[in-house]
Design a protein that fits this description.
The chain is of the alpha+beta class. It folds into two domains: about 45 residues; about 45 residues, SH3 type barrels, CATH 2.30.30. It contains one helix and five strands; from the N terminus they run H-E-E-E-E-E. The protein has a five-stranded antiparallel β-sheet with strand order 4-3-2-1-5, with helices on one face. Strand 3 and strand 4 form a beta hairpin.
Length: about 90
C-alpha cells in the first residue's frame, strides 16, 4: 500500500517538473543570458562610445563614473544612469 502511494505522488509531480523545465529553458535561461550580456556591455563602455538610452536618446559618452555616464547629445550635456543605457551604437 505504501509503495502505491509513493508511486502516486511521484507520478503526480512529474508534470510539474516537466512544466518547470520548459519554463526554465524557454524563459528564465535566455533572460539570464541577456542580462549577463547587457551587464558586460555596460562594463566595457568607455569615453567616446555612442549609446542609445531606453528613452531613445542617442548620445556620446563624455565621462564614465561608477553609477552614471556623463553624456552629450547635440549641444546639451547630461548625466545618464547606467541602468538606462539600452545598447551601444556600432560605428
Amino acid at each position: 500500500m505504501e509503495q502505491n502511494s509513493a508511486m502516486g505522488i511521484l507520478t503526480s509531480l512529474i508534470p510539474f517538473v516537466v512544466i518547470f523545465a520548459i519554463f526554465y529553458f524557454l524563459f528564465i535561461r535566455p533572460q539570464r543570458n541577456q542580462q549577463k550580456k547587457h551587464k558586460e556591455m555596460l562594463a566595457a563602455l568607455k569615453v567616446g562610445d555612442k549609446v542609445v538610452s531606453y528613452g531613445g536618446i542617442v548620445c556620446e559618452i563624455v565621462r564614465v563614473e561608477e553609477k552614471f555616464f556623463t553624456v552629450r547629445s547635440g549641444e546639451s550635456v547630461m548625466q545618464l544612469a547606467r541602468e538606462y543605457v539600452s545598447y551601444k551604437v556600432e560605428q
